[in-house]
Write a structure and sequence with these properties.
CATH architecture of the largest domain: Up-down Bundle
Order of helices and strands: HHHEEHHHHHHH
Largest sheet: 2 strands, antiparallel
Low-confidence stretches: 4-8, 220-230
CATH class of the largest domain: Mainly Alpha
Number of domains: 2
Strand content: under 5%
Distance between the termini: 55 Å
Shape: elongated
CATH topology of the largest domain: Four Helix Bundle (Hemerythrin (Met), subunit A)
Number of strands: 2
CATH superfamily of the largest domain: GntR ligand-binding domain-like
Mean pLDDT: 85
Length: about 230
Amino acid sequence: MPLSHPRRSALSEQVIATLRTQIASGEWPVGSRIPTEPELVEQLGVARNTVREAVRALAHNGLLDIRQGSGTYVVATSELAGVMHRRFADADPGHIAELRSTLEASAARLAARRRTEKDLKQLDTLLLRREEAWESGEAESFVTADTTFHLAVVAASHNDVLTALYADLSEVLRDWLRDDVGQELTPRTHMDHSRLLDAIRAGDAATAAEEAAAYPFVCRPGRVSPPSGG
């Protein structure tokens, strides 16, 4: 239904909130192109200038990227995620790998202790989807499936702060994985995650943490060395 028409500033904020919800809910996934300006005008029932103002505000906040001649694309799911993406876009890949290892090892340890049957069913589904994406040979599909699986592992920790932090960093981690995997999936970059899920299912916190910590350092041998003593 078209939005109501309060005073202009309030209407702009309402449109911004509506677009932000579309992004945060996953209806417009990261990497996707949002509807065109005329389409948004029709969907929301507001003036073109109001839509333009809202899109520019979200671009300024780091959620959208306006690409002349191509369209407007989702680049982050929240303002903080946008800030994180910009802040760490040029970070040392080895440091990103170490960050991912640290966060995921902690999350996997907690997940082994706290996971529910619902979590395990979700992880089973996402692991299968990840393997199917690998078999398809499509690198971008695999990156998305792998990222989704790891986010579900973190969510199974049932630590809301850790989960939110990981989600805000997910695009940084996704960019790192995309670069590490490369344009073509090859046997040497395949990572078997079944042992991680088995450890979480068995409640084996130490093995779950060990498995999760190792993954960032085996994607492409020789690029990054695992932390000593880890």
